[in-house]
Design brief:
Immunoglobulin-like, membrane, transmembrane
Length: 282
């Protein structure tokens, strides 16, 4: 009997010992797993997890909205009207096609200090024959024109299309349009007796220089139908400087005069319909 009691007591003691040992093993195991988990977590956040961006479709990094505000572009940009081309055409200069398009920014508080455009040119069967790309800028509420020369025969073109991409919007108080003025505009037949010349003086009305000033000029009929386009540019216009410019149009364009026949007026330019658009770059 005494032996039986002693045996049971030994078993109980052993069980208690083994139980404590098991508990220690469990505690150690949990501790090791916790440390391993923390190490893996650190590795994930430091080396594996992708950094937040302005294009991850998440509201993070102190953004005011999803992918806008904070370090990203202003949320207002998401509601802006896209750039529009309300008019495009191609003209013949020495039988080669010259492309032009009107671009309208209807946003009154935002301009674009850079955008990309692409002209797609199609032949008369509808097949694309060439693509011409470029970059430009546009100020708030501005209407401007772009101009591209080509080596394509004018008669080979059936249609042109234009598209825009990569528009970099800036609020207008950070992207102000330079003040410029044209004075003493003169439209006359070229010195050779052929073609048309449009000249005048450009005035830089700003206390800073303009590194480049581009001019795009249009000639139109008395019915305001554009019949020709040309361009020129000046470099390094100093602050408050006034400088002479001249835009030369093709030799096959004439001007309406008081003695001109009304039957010919559709191929002649009306001096009073001449338009000049300026792109001034700081």
């Amino acid at each position: 009997m005494a032996f039986f009691v002693f045996a049971n007591f030994s078993i109980i003691c052993y069980s208690i010992y083994m139980g404590k040992r098991l508990i220690k093993q469990i505690i150690y195991g949990v501790g090791y797993l916790t440390v391993l988990f923390l190490i893996l977590l650190v590795i994930y956040f430091i080396w594996l997890k992708a950094a937040p961006t302005c294009f991850d479709n998440k509201k993070n990094q102190n953004e005011a909205g999803v992918d806008c505000g904070g370090p990203c572009a202003a949320c207002e940009i998401k509601t802006l009207s896209p750039l529009q081309s309300t008019w495009k055409n191609y003209f013949s200069i020495n039988n080669k096609a010259v492309l032009s398009a009107q671009i309208r920014n209807s946003n009154s508080t935002y301009g674009a200090n850079r955008f990309s455009y692409v002209f797609d040119i199609y032949n008369k069967t509808g097949a694309k024959i060439k693509t011409i790309s470029g970059n430009s800028l546009i100020y708030a509420s501005e209407i401007k024109y772009i101009f591209e020369s080509t080596e394509i025969n004018y008669s080979d073109i059936g249609e042109i299309k234009i598209s825009f991409s990569d528009v970099q919007w800036l609020v207008d108080n950070k992207f102000l349009k330079p003040k410029t003025q044209i004075r003493e505009k003169l439209v006359k037949i070229g010195d050779s007796g052929k073609g048309v010349e449009v000249s005048g003086y450009i005035v830089n009305g700003n206390p800073y220089p303009l590194r480049k000033v581009r001019f795009v000029g249009f000639l139109a009929t008395s019915n305001n139908i554009k019949i020709s386009v040309s361009k020129t540019e000046l470099d390094n216009l100093k602050a408050f400087e006034e400088r002479y410019f001249k835009i030369i149009f093709p030799k096959d364009i004439g001007l309406i005069s008081l003695s001109a026949s009304s039957e010919l007026s559709f191929i002649l330019a009306d001096p009073n319909r001449t338009e000049i658009y300026i792109e001034a770059l700081r």
